[in-house]
Design goal:
Structural class: alpha/beta
Helix content: 25-40%
Bound molecules: adenosine monophosphate, zinc ion
Number of strands: 20
Number of helices: 11
Distance between the termini: 36 Å
Amino acid sequence: MAKYWNEKVECMSREDMKKLQDEKLVKQVRHVWDNVPYYKKLMEEKGVTPDDIKSTDDLHKLPFLKKDDLRECYPYGLLGAPLKDCVRIQSTSGTTGKRVVAFYTQNDIDLWEDCCARAITAAGGTSEDVVQVAYGYGLFTGGAGIHGGSHKVGCLTLPMSSGNTERQIQFMRDLNATILCCTPSYAAYIGETLKEMGLTPNDINLKAGIFGAEPWTEEMRQEIEKSLGIKAYDIFGLTEISGPGVSFECSEQNGMHINEDHFIAEIINPETGEVLPEGSKGELVFTSLDKEAFPLLRYRTRDICVLSRAKCSCGRTLVRMTKPMGRSDDMLIIKGVNVFPSQIETVLLKDFNATPNYQIVVDRVGNTDTFEIKVELSDEMHTDTIKSVEMLEKKLSADIHQILGIRAKITLCEPKSIPRSEGKAVRVIDKRKVYNA
Ligand code: AMP
Ligand code: ZN
């Protein structure tokens, strides 16, 4: 059984990998300078030109890119290839108005699918396998990336998308799916449903699962492994950098190997931007070395983690990242959707004349996220009759759904009923335990 999808790069010596990255970085910086005026300007502001970047040792000289830059550049401002050469866009979940859209040339798609093929192979997948893709298909990168990777490996691919859980289980049984790919919370839900249907892991043929797109704990891994009778592998990625497969777990299940031939990872201090030495906990920053259409340099992910070059018994030499341990911004991932509290605040304050006394409460019941927004009534809201309160609740609920793509329970409260804080206001109460302690 093939152990690696691309042994040459996955097991490359550190020196050879650095040489490869050095060469690619010099070329990529030139490509960006020549084709992306927005980033060229950032470089000029920092007094850097492509001539200053001779190897990865000079990476720290380049300016960072943040999500705000991506929003400002929406939709075409960071495009690095002519639109006629682009074949696809994907987009991050849940953001309104100025979404983050990422463009792909055919080479970019091949690269991304190749990364997913590495992840599937690392999870034991071969052309003998039947891969059930229960990530959402569409603008979200989950479905498309794994789908393409599964084709590359030659697996029989079931493009289920998410939802309709009993049917998922029926297909899983009828078609002998061996590898399940979806978000960890959906995997847990499938496990729960299996049990409710009076079935056990012996009634299905799954051997592995590849789960990502949201944080999950080791406890959750164990629960999923038990309920489905599988080995559960983590996979990490973000739309801006390509999608799932930026890094993936191997049989060691101890950190995710980053596809360093395509993406350079750095860890920085999120406050100062200073690059931290290996083993430090900080914010993960990626530079994409090969992407043509959306070639982001030093993109700040806001994910907090640690990198390790300790030898891995799987034989891969690719650097490993821990599971994300938190975020350096306030983004929540609720039901798989990225939610910024500021999006909710804008709706409440701007569109509904609410006071800033509101609270976002997130919890997990069984394996499903719950999402409640408590809003204090104010005089300006004109809610003097029961009917007007009901109307307000309905309208708020619809607006939040439209903006985020997920539903929240809206609870309107009496004035002054939400506790005031003497320090920083506590607007978000996340009762879930999604990150490892
Ligand atoms: P999106 O581009 O909308 O799919 O969101 C990307 C973000 O999802 C990342 O920056 C992480 O915060 C989160 N994410 C993706 N994969 C994982 C994972 N395996 N574990 C924890 N968080 C993840
Ligand atoms: Zn390994």
